[in-house]
Amino acid sequence: MRLWCPAPLLLVACAGIEGMPFAVLSAAPDMLCEGAPPTEVTLSARGSIDGDGDDAELSFQWSTTPAPLAVIRGSLTAIEWIGSFPTASPVSIDLTVTDDHGAQASRRHVLPLTRTAAVSCDAGCLDHEICAVVDGQSLCVEAATCTGDDECGCLRCRQAADATWHCATG
After folding, report:
1. 3-state secondary structure the chain
2. Most CB atoms within 10 A, among 40, 117, 168, 169?
3. Tens digits of per-residue pLDDT, 40-72?
4. Are residues 97 and 140 in the same domain?
């Protein structure tokens, strides 16, 4: 039996089924910076559990699209591994956790590609962006608000004309 659990980056699980494993997937960093050199990403299934309590019997199978340029440490069957990924497109990550009875749980996460160059709203904003006036220009910025640069990964926390703060280029 397979339990598919699409979820954000580090949700512990969707509603568990007793006796069934469930997968926990974390990625660091949790985004790729467009145009940057290949990025090393640590992928971990730590926290995945077997519903019957025998966590030592879990096996792991990872796949990514696109494939990593290289596996730096670990393997695609390890609980944790580090891969080097290109920064030309988002990376889709799939994890399947299998217990010793063959029951499986899966998790998917997509590492988004974050633009690092200013993009005019006229060019069209991505799904996770909004159009805001920053320094007198209409630019695509992250929809989520921020309080400091440490929350912005590839970008900087900048104030928009409406006095809200968003991760933006610059």
Report:
1. CEEECCCCCCCCCCCCCCCCCECCCEEECCCEECCCCCEEEEEECCCCECCCCCHHHCEEEEEEECCCCEEEECCCCCCEEEEEECCCCCEEEEEEEECCCCCEEEEEEEECEECCCCCEHHHCCCCCEEEEEECCEEEEEECCECCCHHHCCCCEEEECCCCCEEEECC
2. 168
3. 999 999 999 988 776 668 999 999 999 999 999
4. no
For 32, list phi and psi in degrees, rounded to 5: -115, 140
Does 120 lie in the same domain as 106? no
Question: Which position has the token pair 């494993």?
Answer: 21
Domain housing 144 = 116-168
The four Cα atoms 149, 154, 155, 156 give a dihedral, to 10 degrees, of: 20
State residue 10's pLDDT score: 43
Would you state the structure tokens that stand for residue 86, as one six-digit string? Answer: 């290109």
